[in-house]
Amino acid sequence: MHIKDTFTLKTNIIIKNRLCKSAMTEGIANSMNHCNQRHGNLYTKWARGGVGLSITGNVQVDRRFMEGPGNVSIEKDTYLDQLDDLKSWAESGKINGTQLWMQISHAGRQTPQSIAKEPFAPSQVQLKIPGKAYGLPKEMSEDDIQDVIERFVFVAKVAKETGFTGIQLHSAHGYLLSQFLSPDINQRDDTWGGSIDNRAKLLLTIIKRCKYELGEDFPISVKLNSTDFQKGGFSSEDSIYVAKLLENEGIHLLEISGGTYEQPRLIGLDDVSINPDRSIKRKESTIAREAFFLDYAEKIRNNVSMPLMVTGGFRTLEGMNSALNSGVCDIIGIARPLCGDPNAANKLLEGDIQELPSYEKTLQIGRGILSTSSRILQIQAINAFSQMAWFYIQIKRMGDNLNPSMKLGILKAFWLNNKDEKKVLKNLDL
Ligand SMILES: Cc1cc2nc3c(=O)[nH]c(=O)nc-3n(C[C@H](O)[C@H](O)[C@H](O)COP(=O)(O)O)c2cc1C
Fold first, then answer.
1. Nearest of 391, 287, 285, 277 to residue 336 by alpha carbon
2. Which of its termini does the chain have fewer beta carbons within 10 Å around, N or C?
């Protein structure tokens, strides 16, 4: 098995190779949170870059509760205004025979205060990270939950109508669907909380409704945490259980990731929450295998036979081929390497390189300090956000048809991205 091999989904849709550009927030929507030519420019680059499957950054179902000010959001009242732009985004992302799936999400309690002072969440449990960037959430009412379901289904229908070839429901990384799954965040005592079946009900209801509206043949994927890495949170056992439910529901592809804003394991970083729990360590075997979640994925693979994709940390051709050959996963998700070199997948597929670039290795504020004192939590949190900022700026540059800049430093990226977000926020027509 090789990353060059094709992969056939159950509905006979062929993905031309085993590499997927995993979802990454673009942050380049206009003041109405509509997509535009910048999305077309960016996804043209990634489609030309060789991946078989490309998944968009999280498209929001509700502008009031976005993950960032530059997110694309699709809403009933205004979607017609961006229909043409959505169609041309889809066209651009599909060139070169690429599959283009829209990731759909609601940020829930991970909505920044600058967007919503009182975000929505399953229960009134606030994010525990330094600073006051995230407000105390409102516990959602039954009507709020029904509205969220309708919004997910609506965005999924628009995705299909405008030419995206599939959708992915974002149920990982601590956003709303993942919050419902987590027993420490979802403390409801109605039918949406309590047992794992109840906590998974929102995700499953949305899938059932999407299948009904889009048809069995339209690919539906889910991105799921292998665990939240939080004591009393969504565990590896929960994840296996939900994977089985998803298999029964007949989804086309399950992407496995892990972590939340408090536990940014998705990008390989440690606990940045207030009172960090240092007892949950990354397993040595996982570190050695380069991909962060392969051990967890293996347990899921032992319980389900649906197609699996694993994302996080994959860099070497050898590591990717060995994961495919072991049968643990069918598709390899990659994200950050494609921010610095949108053509990196082609190079790997053609054998020009044996390893994707690991930009994150050189992007750390106070590297020496951190290794001696992991208690400098603020620095750790700033570090996590700054690293992300570096990748955001490269994405924005590509949206403007510029090449990524290797001269950009992490502090400058942090400053530039903050400045840009403030400007976007100020102009936002909320
Ligand atoms: C700038 C940036 C934005 C991201 N945005 C999203 C997102 O919108 N949805 C999502 O599911 N994951 C998002 N991620 C996580 C990636 O999809 C991926 O899981 C993570 O970067 C680990 O893969 P990597 O080691 O190949 O980068 C984002 C990551 C980065 C660096």
1. 391
2. C
Q: Quick one: tokens of 31?
A: 């003041």
C-alpha span between 218 and 240 (Å, rounded)? 24
Q: Rounded to two decimals, what is the model's pTM?
A: 0.94
Domains of the chain: 7-357 (3.20.20.70)
Supply 352's token pair: 């020009």
Closest ligand 1 atom to residue 388 Cα is 1
Helices (H) then strands (E): counts for the chain: 15, 13
Neighbours of 292 (CB within 10 A): 26
Q: How many Å lie between the centroid of ligand 1 and the Cα of residue 394?
A: 14
CB neighbourhood size of 63 (10 A): 20
Say if ligand 1 is within 6 A of residue 336 CB: yes
Task: Report H helices in 96-184.
Answer: 142-161, 176-181
Q: How far is CA 391 from CA 89, 332, 404, in A?
A: 21, 20, 9
Residue nearest to atom 13 of ligand 1 (CA): 24
The one-letter code for the residue type at 322 is S
Spatial neighbors of 191 by CB under 8 A, at least 6 apart, are 198, 201
User: Tens digit of pLDDT for each residue in 72-102?
Assistant: 999 999 999 999 999 999 999 999 999 999 9
Q: b/e string for 139-176 if b means 16 or more Cβ within 10 A?
A: ebeeeebeebbebbbbbbbbbbebebbbbbbbbbbbbb
